[in-house]
Design goal:
This protein is mainly α. Helices cover 50% and strands 4% of the residues. The chain has eleven helices and three strands.
Length: 264
């Protein structure tokens, strides 16, 4: 007979967090991953902890190949965040040893796309028909349609949030508002958000504005240039001994370095 005792260990979670979570619609798999993050962080009095996909799978019972999908949903909704061990350092990592830290975003004002459950009509259980026009059901599986609509709204919200952040940063740094091409720039950011979380993308934008790269300076720090520089911003500066290009590539880097020294 199981007999868990608080004295053997417990996870302290603020009542406000539990109340806010109880108002949100969260899938069973998302709940399981979230509970593991609580256990590994708050359960050890830590803000974040290194948790591998294998650990998530073993502790939750979710197949390992499904874990990244569930984490991506929680990250997109900004209810959790991740911190890379070498984030911002430009130091490369090995796939075998690279384990990301995960933490819970306790500021629920930053959560996005979390729909509150619909209230049940008081007449629903009594068999009383509901008034008002009937709505034709949408084609396809209701669960699939709801998920697609929710994710689309989340992505669009994240795009708007990022564009607003870009606008304010540009205006603060240069004293004038940027010219933004709504559809084109929005699609560029939407594409990036399919691979990078909103918070990570904001961090890369800050690095972009801090860059003194000649191409970036000459192009005016546009969103298009930001998109073109995204891989370079993620990798960071190439450091001696960390990157060994092939012979043809090496000569190109040597030539670029010499041109910068000569002021070309």
């Amino acid at each position: 007979m199981a007999s868990p005792q608080k004295e053997n260990g417990y996870t302290p979670i603020a009542h406000t967090i539990l109340e806010q979570l109880s108002k949100r619609v969260i899938s069973p798999d998302e709940w399981r991953i979230l509970m593991i993050i609580f256990r590994k962080t708050y359960g050890w009095d830590k803000k974040e902890d290194c948790i591998s996909h294998t650990q998530f799978s073993e502790m939750s019972g979710i197949p390992r190949n499904h874990v990244p999908r569930v984490l991506k949903k929680l990250l997109a909704r900004n209810i959790i965040y991740r911190v890379s061990p070498n984030q911002g350092t430009g130091v490369p990592h090995s796939r075998d040893t690279y384990i990301i830290k995960y933490g819970f975003q306790k500021n629920f004002d930053k959560w996005v796309g979390w729909v509150s459950p619909k209230r049940v009509s008081p007449n629903q259980d009594k068999g009383v028909p509901q008034s008002g026009p009937k709505v034709s059901p949408k084609r396809g599986h209701t669960k699939d349609i709801t998920t697609k609509e929710t994710i689309t709204k989340e992505i669009n919200h994240c795009v708007k949030t990022f564009i607003d952040f870009y606008f304010e940063e540009f205006k603060t740094r240069f004293g004038k508002p940027p010219i933004i091409e709504g559809g084109k720039d929005g699609n560029l950011i939407k594409g990036l958000l399919n691979h990078i979380t909103l918070e990570d993308l904001k961090g890369l934008l800050t690095k972009f504005f801090d860059s003194t790269d000649k191409f970036t300076l000459g192009s005016g720090y546009t969103i298009g240039v930001f998109k073109s520089q995204i891989n370079k911003l993620q990798i960071g500066p190439i450091k001696q001994g960390l990157f060994k290009p092939q012979p043809g590539i090496a000569s190109w880097y040597d030539r670029k370095e010499q041109e910068e020294k000569d002021g070309a």
